[in-house]
C-alpha cells in the first residue's frame, strides 16, 4: 500500500500543474474594439475601408486620438451661434444631412396630418400631458372646456392647435440649418415652453409651461413615427441607403430639439 502511494505522489510531482480558470473579477488589459458601423454592424478590418452607409466615412484608426475643442459652458447658454456650432459639431450634422432632409421632406408631407392626429391622441392618454390643453392658446378666442372630462380631440382649441403643429412639423423638415435664424427660432420655441414669453406676440397671453420630461418624451415619440414613415416609403421613391441617411439626419435634428428644450 505504501508503494502505491509513493508512485502516485511521484507521478503527481512529475506531471504539469493544473491550469485553473481565471477569476471573473480579475483585471485584464483593455484592448480597443474594432470600428463598427451602427447601421449595418460591419467591422472595418482596414482603417482605409469604407464600411458605414450612414456617413460614408472610413473607420478611424484605433490609435487615433481626437482633437479636443474648448467650449465655454456660459456661452452655450447665452450665445446662439456658440450653441449652434456645438450642436452641429457634436451630432455631426453636415450639409449632406440638410440635403437628405430636403429630399425626404416632400415624400412624407402627406403623413404629417396623420402623425399630428396620432400625437395628440398619445398626449390625451395621460392627465399630465392632457391638462396643458385646458389653458388658452395664443390667438384662440373660443370657449374652453372646464375640465379634463370635457376636453376632447375635437374641441375647437385642439383643432386650432393642430393647424400650427402641422406647420411646425413642415418647418422643421425644411428649415435651413446653416442659418442662425433657424436656431434663434428653435431657442424661442424652447423658452416658450418654460413659461417665459419669448415671442412678442405672446406678451399678453398666459404663460405656457410644459415640463422638460414631457417635451423630451413627445419629441422621442415623434422621432419614432417619422422613422417609421420613412422606412415605409416605396423603394421607387427612396432607396435603402437614402432611408438610412434620412433617419440619421432626422435623429440629429430631434436630438438638437431636445438640447434646446433642456438648455432653456
From TrEMBL:
<dbReference type="GO" id="GO:0019825">
    <property type="term" value="F:oxygen binding"/>
</dbReference>
<feature type="region of interest" description="Disordered">
    <location>
        <begin position="1"/>
        <end position="47"/>
    </location>
</feature>
<dbReference type="Pfam" id="PF11563">
    <property type="entry name" value="Protoglobin"/>
</dbReference>
<feature type="domain" description="Globin-sensor">
    <location>
        <begin position="83"/>
        <end position="253"/>
    </location>
</feature>
<feature type="compositionally biased region" description="Basic and acidic residues">
    <location>
        <begin position="23"/>
        <end position="34"/>
    </location>
</feature>
<protein>
    <recommendedName>
        <fullName>Globin-sensor domain-containing protein</fullName>
    </recommendedName>
</protein>
<dbReference type="InterPro" id="IPR012292">
    <property type="entry name" value="Globin/Proto"/>
</dbReference>
<dbReference type="GO" id="GO:0020037">
    <property type="term" value="F:heme binding"/>
</dbReference>
<dbReference type="InterPro" id="IPR044398">
    <property type="entry name" value="Globin-sensor_dom"/>
</dbReference>
